[in-house]
Design a protein that fits this description.
Blueprint lengths: L2 H29 L2 E4 L10 E7 L4 E8 L7 E8 L16 E2 L2 H12 L2 E5 L12 E9 L4 E8 L7 E6 L4 E6 L4 H4 L13 H4 L5 E10 L2 E8 L5 H8 L13 H4 L5 E9 L4 E9 L2 E6 L2 E5 L1 H8 L2
Antiparallel strand pairs: 1-6, 2-3, 2-7, 3-4, 4-5, 6-10, 7-8, 8-9, 9-10, 11-12, 11-13, 13-14, 14-15, 15-16
């Protein structure tokens, strides 16, 4: 057989394989229905009243509260149950009403309302119990209407996509995993890290006065700094930006926050007569500050910095 014929036959075979492969791929892609949508309609982002994270290990509720201050800031507060027996034992509650990190809640709501690419899953083609749903998210509106009810499949470090079931429609999707991190967060990760509200830090001009109470050997000495005073601005800027990532375990709070351990109090008042208190404690060679209903552990350097105000 001539070389030209062999070359022609080989070329024909290659083209045939490519054509068949192309047709198969096209059919496969056409059978897979892709959908561009958000898990939560963005129009509901301002109407979210309650967010529930229900994982294998815990049950966390974020509840919106309207703060009555000069900026009318909306924040979420957390209740955390460290056992799935959350409806039986109240001692499973770590704490109720602790202020959440606004950045964290905003990021979560943004993730829920972002338009993403979802692959619709044909559940009829799946084997029974092929998908195991381990985690759940429920979102309620300000009228107590359920806006979202999702179940999420398990994920591990090797997987980049997970299955998501919309329990309101029974539809199942495959999506890039941007959600498992919310189910592995510790209770402390939900909480606010700043000693003073973010809205107050961003609006220093609203602060009208500070009361600084020094405590030594049980005796209290009080100083009041007015807005037009010489030291007011410098003292305020010393305390407002401070924060801590170390939150003391709530079961230790009563022991730490005894009167005998109290060394300093700072009270900040805004133009709407809202009072923000922080209290400094020293015990067993460790240092703490109570602020916004949370007890933070702080370094000796931070402790001395606040003590010097």
């Amino acid at each position: 057989m001539k070389k030209s014929n062999i070359l022609l036959i080989s070329l024909t075979i290659c083209l045939s394989i490519t054509l068949v492969f192309g047709i198969t791929t096209k059919r496969t892609n056409s059978n897979r229905k892709m959908e561009k949508t958000a898990l939560l309609n963005p129009k509901y982002s301002e109407k979210i009243e309650r967010i529930i994270f229900d994982s294998e290990k815990s049950y966390t509720i974020l509840q919106k509260k309207q703060k009555n201050n000069i900026l009318n800031q909306v924040s979420y507060f957390m209740s955390y149950f460290n056992s799935k027996n959350y409806d039986i034992k109240y001692d499973n509650i770590i704490n109720i009403g602790l202020k959440c990190d606004n950045n964290m809640t905003s990021e979560f709501i943004q993730n829920m309302t972002n338009v993403i690419l979802l692959a619709k899953v044909d559940t009829k083609s799946l084997k029974k119990n092929q998908i195991v749903y381990a985690n759940h998210i429920q979102i309620y509106g300000d009228d107590e209407r359920k806006l979202l009810d999702l179940s999420f499949s398990k994920s591990d470090s090797t997987e980049t996509r997970i299955f998501i079931k919309n329990n309101l429609t029974d539809k199942v999707y495959s999506a890039k995993d941007e959600y498992s991190k919310y189910f592995t967060m510790e209770w402390k990760d939900f909480l606010n890290k700043s000693f003073f509200p973010e809205e107050l830090q961003n609006n220093i001009s609203s602060v009208q006065q500070m009361e600084i109470v020094d405590i030594k050997n049980g005796k209290k000495t009080s100083r009041i700094l007015q807005r037009d005073g010489d030291q007011f601005q410098s003292k305020l800027l010393q305390i407002l930006p401070l924060q801590s990532n170390q939150i003391s375990l709530p079961e230790n709070w009563n022991y730490i926050m005894q009167e005998k351990n109290l060394t300093k109090q700072i009270k900040v008042e805004d133009g709407m007569l809202n009072l923000y208190n922080v209290a400094l404690y020293e015990t067993d060679g460790q240092f703490f500050i109570s602020a916004q209903g949370i007890l933070y552990k702080i370094s000796e350097w931070t402790y001395l910095k606040i003590l010097d105000i």
